[in-house]
Amino acid sequence: MPTGVHIRDARQQLFDAAERVLLRDGPSALTSRAVTTEAGCAKGVLHRHFTDFDDFLAALVLARTREVETLAATLRDSAGTGSVADNLARALAALFGPVAVAVIPLITFRDELRARLRRTWPAGVPILSEGVAMAASYLAAERDLGRIDTDTDIDTLAPTLVGAGHLLHGDRNGAPPDAGAVRRMVTTVLAGVIREPA
């Protein structure tokens, strides 16, 4: 793209381009040149908005993580309606969409990215940590409504659900698991704590 051509919402355009490269070519192919080429802009555009490429990647990860907050609110609002297992299975399928599944190994792949994230995200992998908080908040709401046992160990169940969900969705080259497989996993993890009718 020629210098001086205005790009509307350059940050989002760069994020979208990075996600396309990540999904198509994997974390090792994600470079500033690959992102700006995919976005159709000069390399300087990225450096005008971010101090360096790892600053860009940290912003990308945190933007994706903030989307989990919306998903968490939707899941929390579903408490008391439908089936606990169905609600959680849908939320886990949404949490582990293709980009989220690809971002997790990106964090593992880049030492400097992990270091940058630690400055604002003290523990865990951001998307996974937010997923655990989402599941825990929902399970607490269902416990308050009496749809799961009052002595349910939410602090163990929430990371178990997210970890198992990540394993089911983790093969980025394969198709996502079918909804039935995710629901079976959720039902198995929650066996013995659900009070609602089957």
Characteristics:
single chain; about 200 residues; mainly alpha; Arc Repressor Mutant, subunit A; Tetracycline Repressor, domain 2
- Rg: 19 Å
Number of helices: 10
| Uncertain parts | 1-6
| Assigned CATH architecture of the largest domain | Orthogonal Bundle
Q: Got a strand count?
A: 0
- Helix % is 55-70%
Largest sheet at a glance?
none
Strand content: under 5%
| Oligomerization | single chain
Arithmetic mean of pLDDT: 89
CATH superfamily of the largest domain, by name, is Tetracycline Repressor, domain 2
Compressed to H and E, one letter per element, the order equals HHHHHHHHHH
CA distance, first residue to last residue: 58 Å
User: What is the CATH T-level topology of the largest domain?
Assistant: Tetracycline Repressor, domain 2
Global structural class: mainly alpha
Which word captures the global form?
A: elongated
CATH class call of the largest domain:
Mainly Alpha
Q: How many structural domains are formed by the residues?
A: 2
Report on this model:
It is a single chain. With 198 residues, this protein is mainly α. The protein has two domains: 1-49, Arc Repressor Mutant, subunit A (Orthogonal Bundle); 65-189, Tetracycline Repressor, domain 2, CATH 1.10.357. The chain has helices spanning 10-25, 32-39, 43-49, 53-77, 84-95, 98-109, 111-120, 126-144, 154-169, 179-189. The chain starts with 9 loop residues before the first helix and ends in a 9-residue tail after the last helix. The model is unreliable at 1-6 (pLDDT under 50).
